[in-house]
Write a structure and sequence with these properties.
GO terms for molecular function: metal ion binding; transmembrane ascorbate ferrireductase activity; transmembrane monodehydroascorbate reductase activity. 61% of the residues lie in helices and 6% in strands. The protein is mainly α. It has a single domain, classed as Four Helix Bundle (Hemerythrin (Met), subunit A) (Up-down Bundle), CATH 1.20.120. The strands form 2 sheets. It has a two-stranded antiparallel ribbon with strand order 1-2. It has a two-stranded antiparallel sheet with strand order 3-4. Strand 1 and strand 2 form a beta hairpin. Helix 2 runs antiparallel to helix 3, helix 3 runs antiparallel to helix 4 and helix 4 packs antiparallel against helix 5. The radius of gyration is 22 Å and the shape is globular. It starts with a strand and ends with a helix. The structure holds protoporphyrin IX containing FE.
C-alpha cells in the first residue's frame, strides 16, 4: 500500500526530510489516555512555513474542555480552602488543611493528569517528559500532603477518631506503598528480570488509584469537620455550601481518575 503525500526538507532541524500526509493520520485505536506518544508536529516544515494546525476530533476537543473544567474546580476548592485558612491570625492558621489541600488535591490531581491527551500543558511533551512531570508532581504532592498530616498528628491529643481521620491514616499508609510502586515502575526496564514490566506498571496504576481515591474520600469528609464549620464562610453552616464542595470533590475525583482507570482497563493484565 502506498502512502499519499509529499516529502519536504525541514531546513530548521538539521535538514531532516519529513513525510507530510495529504490525508489526516488515522486515529489510533489504542487507549491514548495512557499510551499517547505525543504527536508533536514539527513547528515549521518546508521553507520555514508554519505547519498547518492539527485538526482535532470532537472527542479531543471535549477532552480539552473536561480537563479545563477539572482544573477550574480544583482551583476553586484549593483557593477557597487556602483563603479560608490563611486569612486567620497566624497562630490560628490550620496548616493541616492548607498543606493537605495543596498536596493531595492540587499537585496529586495535576500529576495524574500529566499523561492525559486532553491536557493542553503536556500536549507537546513526549512520553518520558510526561513520566518525569508525573513523578515530580506526585512526589512533591505526597511530601506536602504528608507534612500536613504530620502537623495535625502533632497537634491532636486523640488520634484517628473520626471518619476523616481514619481515611486520612489509610491514605498515608497506602501512599508509602504507592511511592515504592512508583519507584519500581520508574525502573521497570531495569527490573524486568524480576518483575514483568506490564505487571509492574499495572500494579502501580492500581495502588496509585487506591491512594488517590482514599485522599479524595478524606477530602470529602473534611467538610464535616469542626474546623471547616468554624473557619469557613457563614454560608458553610448552611448545608448547601458544604454539599456544593462535596459534589465538586466527587466531580474532581471522577475527572481525574478516569485516565488511570482507562489505562487499567486497556492494560489487560
Ligand atoms: C486529602 C486531604 C486530607 C487528608 C489526607 C487528611 C488527613 C488527616 C488525618 C490523617 C487526620 C488525623 C490526624 C490525627 O488524628 O492525629 C486528620 C485530621 C483532621 N483533619 Fe484532615 N486531611 C485532609 C484534609 C483536610 C482538610 C481540607 C481539612 C479542613 C477543612 C481537614 C481538617 C481536619 C481536622 C479538623 C482534623 C482533626 C479532627 C479529625 O480527625 O477529624 N483535613 N486529617
Amino acid at each position: 500500500m502506498t502512502r499519499r503525500g509529499k516529502f519536504v526538507v525541514n531546513k530548521v532541524s538539521n535538514a531532516r526530510i519529513h513525510f507530510i500526509r495529504d490525508t489526516p493520520a488515522p486515529q489510533s485505536t489504542a487507549p491514548q489516555q495512557c499510551h499517547n506518544v505525543s504527536s508533536s508536529t514539527p513547528a515549521q516544515v518546508g521553507c520555514g512555513r508554519p505547519a498547518p494546525p492539527p485538526t482535532l476530533t470532537l472527542t479531543q476537543k471535549l477532552e480539552f474542555v473536561v480537563t479545563l473544567v477539572n482544573r477550574l474546580l480544583i482551583g476553586f476548592v484549593t483557593v477557597y480552602l487556602c483563603w479560608m485558612s490563611l486569612r486567620l491570625d497566624s497562630k490560628d492558621i490550620p496548616w493541616h488543611a492548607v498543606f493537605c489541600t495543596l498536596g493531595f488535591l492540587c499537585l496529586m490531581s495535576e500529576g495524574l493528569m500529566a499523561y492525559y491527551r486532553g491536557n493542553a500543558c503536556t500536549q507537546v511533551c513526549h512520553r518520558p517528559e510526561k513520566a518525569r512531570l508525573h513523578w515530580v508532581l506526585q512526589l512533591c504532592g505526597s511530601i506536602i500532603g504528608l507534612i500536613g498530616i504530620v502537623i495535625k498528628m502533632c497537634l491532636e491529643e486523640v488520634h484517628f477518631h473520626t471518619r476523616h481521620g481514619i481515611i486520612g491514616l489509610a491514605t498515608m499508609v497506602i501512599l508509602f506503598i504507592s511511592l515504592l510502586s512508583g519507584l519500581s515502575s520508574l525502573y521497570a526496564a531495569e527490573l524486568k528480570g524480576r518483575l514483568q514490566p506490564r505487571f509492574n506498571k499495572t500494579l502501580h496504576n492500581i495502588i496509585g488509584l487506591i491512594t488517590f481515591t482514599l485522599a479524595m474520600l478524606s477530602m470529602y469528609y473534611s467538610f464535616e469537620t469542626q474546623l471547616f464549620n468554624d473557619y469557613s464562610l457563614d454560608a458553610s453552616t448552611y448545608m448547601d455550601f458544604r454539599f456544593l464542595l462535596e459534589i465538586i470533590t466527587i466531580i474532581i475525583f471522577v475527572l481525574t481518575a478516569y485516565g488511570p482507570m482507562w489505562c487499567l482497563f486497556y492494560s489487560r493484565l
